[in-house]
Amino acid sequence: AKLALEIDGERVQRAYSYVNAPDDANLEFYLVTVPEGKLSPRLSQLQPGSEVMVTKEAAGFFVLDEVPDCDTLWMLATGTAIGPYLSILQQGAGLER
Fold it and tell me: N or C, which end of the chain is more exposed by having fewer CB within 10 Å?
C-alpha cells in the first residue's frame, strides 16, 4: 500500500506494508518515524479524523501469491518488517495449499 499526504502543495507518497489481511475493510500499519523524513513525522502527528491518501493494492515480494508451496514456512523479521507476515497470516486460507 502507499500512503500520501499533501505537504506544502506537494503530494508526498511512500510505500508501507499493512498488517491486516488485504480484504479487511480497515487498514492497519506499523510505522517508524524517521525524524528527518518527509512523510513519517507528519503521519505520526495525525489526529483522529485526519485525511490520508491511500493506494490499497498490495504489490511486491511480500504478498501471498509470492509465497512458494512448502511443508514448513519460516517467517523471520525485525521491526516494521513483521507487517507483511502478519497480513499473510491473517489471510491464512491461502496458506493451506
Answer: C
